[in-house]
Amino acid sequence: MAFEFSIETNDSGTHARCGTLQTPHGPISTPVFMPVGTRGSVKGLTPIQIKDVGSSIILANTYHLALRPGSEIVRELGGLHDFMQWSGPILTDSGGFQVFSLATLNDIDDDGVSFKSHIDGTPMRLDPASSVKIQEDLGADIIMAFDECPALPAERATLERAVERTIRWAGQCRDAQSRDDQALFGIVQGGLNLDMRLSCMEALAELDLPGYAVGGLSVGEDPDEMATLLKGFAHQMPADKPRYLMGVGRPIDIVRAIASGIDMFDCVMPTRNGRNSFAFVEGGVLRLRNSRYKLDDTPIDATCDCYCCQHFSRAYIRHLFLANEMLGPTLLSLHNLRHYHRLIERVRAAIRAGTLANLLTTMEEQHAAPTLAAGDDD
Amino acid sequence: MAFEFSIETNDSGTHARCGTLQTPHGPISTPVFMPVGTRGSVKGLTPIQIKDVGSSIILANTYHLALRPGSEIVRELGGLHDFMQWSGPILTDSGGFQVFSLATLNDIDDDGVSFKSHIDGTPMRLDPASSVKIQEDLGADIIMAFDECPALPAERATLERAVERTIRWAGQCRDAQSRDDQALFGIVQGGLNLDMRLSCMEALAELDLPGYAVGGLSVGEDPDEMATLLKGFAHQMPADKPRYLMGVGRPIDIVRAIASGIDMFDCVMPTRNGRNSFAFVEGGVLRLRNSRYKLDDTPIDATCDCYCCQHFSRAYIRHLFLANEMLGPTLLSLHNLRHYHRLIERVRAAIRAGTLANLLTTMEEQHAAPTLAAGDDD
Predict the structure, then answer these.
(1) Which is deepest, A18, A144, B40, B290, by most CB within 10 Å?
(2) How far apart, in whole angstroms, are the C-alpha atoms of residue A131 and residue A118?
(3) What is the DSSP-derived secondary structure letter of residue B354?
(4) How far is Cα of residue B337 from the mean position of the Cα atoms in its chain?
């Protein structure tokens, strides 16, 4: 059955769980990390490479694709799966976050948002119905409700207004759906305020949507504040639905959130950092442009099974970045995505073994005393 | 035996031939097209992808690698094959062409060239012995003699001086060789002057080098003038040695040169044009940024077996270029290299069938009346 979500293991020591979400394009094992393919391409990687690093579902951005090439063009070309030749599940966001963060805002009102395209200034409007329409054109397996996402810190009144609109808009999104092969996830707002989050969640739960996301985090606040909020909130989200934390984050943020009960994540960090010569390794980050790697013939991570680590030296990757060769960003994007997926695999195994709390403790200790990240910059 | 060159078929109607060149990293079937990996990377492609499109040997540039990361660093890291993880044969040029075309020249004298790095202005000197030393550090299977390569048109005296130096330097290069696992190819200069080319060839033949290249073409002259020179010259090069035309060229130039007796080619055209949204198809070139491809769900070339044509539409590739996605250059580089290799495969089959003259006639007709190239630009 499409979108059935089954939980196989609940961790004994934390709120973490292992599960499977069925989609029209195949099952997703959770917890899951979703690479970001903003404009219909995970930057620098072919679909084969994305699959090879272990990605099972990818994310694409409604706002960007609506602006270019346009959602109707994607629909005419067979939808996003055909367009970008990704045969697995896809999730599209609602465009809300980008409208607030990228576009030149014209006006937010109770019914939607008027804005100007950040590409060419074209006046546009996005509201619950049009966001759903665009996402139906794109044809992702999971689509997101259109929400208002205020930057943090925000006044209480701003957050309350955003929560109120987000709830009302979620209902309008559900009513606007004309396809039955897409799961509409609701988005919970409410900033760092637990009560507001809970009341938002309660209202959205009445819609009985197939999944719920935590939005409005990783938008300027301290990551520890986010972790505290999630610790109190995530496990109070409907237990039988997948829980998705939008736009997060660093490995430590992800494992903390999983322990708090979150199932799904997306973030540009592995690919964006990779394009900027940063490689994730256990306990830190290497900056491959650093001169210390000039003659380093070891792989980025000797324990990693990715194509980059199985073949190339740090010295070669440094050379690629200094010579502005595209292959550098490609190889580090591959490695960083693989690093994230391997972390998630370790987390899943720990949940099954009932040892996630230990893994998290180890990561917290590494995080408190980073042996690599701090000393690695030029 | 390393570097044995055997000819399997001589075309009955032209001077073309099919052969095999043995190298320490495996055999090369000729005629052959070699992708260019200037800085130790064929731009945007992994070694797996390069192999998958059918490349058997790649080229790297001595000048660029000597400047960055430095040939001694490459040597310390195990040589170019290990450094860039290409397990097949590699050819390095001598650096001569780049010194004359890219560097700020300080002084050309009878013994070599003093110049300033185009990267940081560092004063450097390249001469026959240092070029061989650098190429031994890099460790390619085929290395090139250091030559003087004047731009065309050039005064007769300039060409004569270049020929004289090129001959003398070739002997010095041979004397400077300390490795016996690298084939040193001589380079023939002499501009568009057949007599000068023949006398240069005659002098170089006395060195009995394992291969000979035609240098100093595709440097400003009309491609038809190049074709005329090659028609009279290529078949007079030693018949039992591989003949390499450096830096050429368009598909028509390559097939003309093969018919004249050339065996080996390299050119940045397939990858550089690919990065600029141009795709080679039979009889012309498509510019994928063109708005006519906005809704075109067909592949670039329905007859092509490359990953790009087997999966992606022209509309998607156009979108990638308009959105500045790295995947666009990668996919078109893949396709264009595959297009070149498929052309060479057709040429080899035609040589074996004795029908190369017919294939060339067809290509000349398409070339005279291009159906795609001329009308395709925005």
Answers:
(1) A144
(2) 17
(3) T
(4) 12
Choose the catalytic residue: A141, A253, A266, A301.
A266
d(CA B173, CA B176) in angstroms, rounded, equals 5
Using an 8 Å CB-CB cutoff, list chain B residues near A68: 319, 322-323
Interface check for A33 against chain B (CB to CB < 8 A): the answer is no
Tokens 């510019």, residue located: B287
Nearest to A73 among B39, B44, B295 (CB): B295
Cβ distance of B46 and A307 shorter than 8 Å: yes
Q: Where are the alpha helices (DSSP H) in chain A?
A: 47-52, 62-67, 71-76, 80-84, 96-101, 128-138, 156-176, 194-205, 223-233, 251-260, 269-275, 307-311, 314-322, 327-353, 356-368
Place of tokens 């795709």: B279
| CA B42/CA B77 separation, integer angstroms | 19
Q: Tell me the nearest-neighbour CA distance from A319 into chain B, angstroms.
A: 6
| CA distance, residue A128 to nearest chain B CA (Å) | 26
Taking only the tens place, the pLDDT of each residue in A279-296 is 999 989 999 999 999 999
Helix residue ranges, H only, chain B: 47-52, 62-67, 71-76, 80-84, 96-101, 128-138, 156-176, 194-205, 223-233, 251-260, 269-275, 307-311, 314-322, 327-353, 356-368
Structure tokens at B122: 């560092």
Query: CA–CA separation, A247 vs A224, rounded Å?
Result: 15
Residues with Cβ within 8 Å of residue A315, at least 6 apart in sequence: A293, A294, A295, A296, A297, B69, B73, B77, B83
The nearest CA of chain B is from the CA of A331 a distance in Å of 8
Q: Is A180 a catalytic site residue?
A: no
- Chain A contacts of B68, Cβ < 8 Å? 319, 322-323
Please write the tens of the pLDDT for every residue from B32-75.
Answer: 999 999 999 999 999 999 999 999 999 999 999 999 999 999 99
Domains of chain B (ranges plus CATH)?
5-268 (3.20.20.105), 274-368 (no CATH)
Q: What is the ipTM of this complex?
A: 0.96
Burial B62-76 (b: 16+ CB within 10 A, else e): bbbbbbebebebbbb
Alpha-carbon distance values, B300 to A49, B303, B313 (Å): 21, 9, 7
Whether B76 sits inside 8 A of A295 (CB atoms) is: yes
**Active site includes B266?**
yes
Q: Are strands A90-92 and A58-60 parallel, antiparallel or unpaired?
A: parallel
Average pLDDT, chain A: 95
Whether B358 has its CB under 8 Å from any CB of chain A: the answer is no
| Spatial separation of the C-alpha atoms in residues A87 and B315, rounded to whole Å | 18
Q: How far apart, in Å, are the Cα atoms of B162 and each of B165, B196, B209?
A: 5, 11, 19
| pTM score | 0.96
